[in-house]
Request: fold
Amino acid sequence: MAFNIMAESKKSIDYDKLYIRVFKEHLMIEFIPMPNLGLESGDAIGICVPQKNINENTWKELKTILKILKSEFNLDVYDLYGGQKLGLFNINDFRKNLLGV
Reply:
């Protein structure tokens, strides 16, 4: 079981640049490149948080990554569990769903 998120764009994503920017050794989150599967045939990236890795530290790591995806790569991020686009107004609800609190 896992918690899944999708980040997508209407254009190409520089996956190499994204990998360099967000990858850390021992990352508790998995990334799946999804070329041409974003909006209007743009690119996307799947983000998977395995259930065994879900804790407060993983949340902090994920929150930082989500900010980078939005601010530096201009990606729209969706919570696939709740079916909602993530933003400032619902990030705390997303955290509650993720952590089960």
About this structure: The chain has three helices and five strands. Strands lie at 2-8, 30-34, 44-50, 76-79, 84-85. The chain has one domain: 2-99.
